[in-house]
């Protein structure tokens, strides 16, 4: 590995932070007001954590649902087909 690192300009960082900010639901609701890079990064981390919690919750709910289904039922086949897509 090379010890040289590619440099990223302040303008590129500002552009990347702006793009990141546009992906966050909270900042989209508030409008286009500029937030500090630190605030955008903190909100991004919080949003990713909330997505992880949501995925875990949905996974748990799916597991519970699958446990109550007859494995040969039409409903179970529909759920399995969704996973194949």
UniProtKB/TrEMBL annotation:
GO terms of molecular function: protein dimerization activity
Keyword Transcription regulation annotated: yes
Q: What's in the keyword line of the UniProt record?
A: Growth regulation, Transcription, Transcription regulation
Q: Does the keyword Transcription regulation apply?
A: yes
- Superkingdom, according to UniProt? Eukaryota
According to its UniProt entry, one GO biological process term is: regulation of DNA-templated transcription
The chain positions of domain BHLH read: 1-51
The family this protein is said to belong to: Belongs to the bHLH protein family.
Name assigned to this protein: BHLH domain-containing protein
């Amino acid at each position: 590995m090379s010890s040289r690192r590619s440099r990223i300009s302040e303008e590129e960082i500002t552009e990347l932070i702006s793009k990141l900010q546009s992906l966050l639901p909270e900042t989209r609701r508030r409008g286009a007001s500029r937030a500090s890079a630190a605030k955008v990064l903190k909100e991004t981390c919080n949003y990713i954590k909330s997505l992880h919690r949501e995925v875990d919750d949905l996974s748990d709910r799916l597991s519970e649902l699958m446990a109550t289904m007859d494995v040969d039922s039409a409903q179970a086949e529909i759920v399995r087909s969704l996973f194949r897509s």
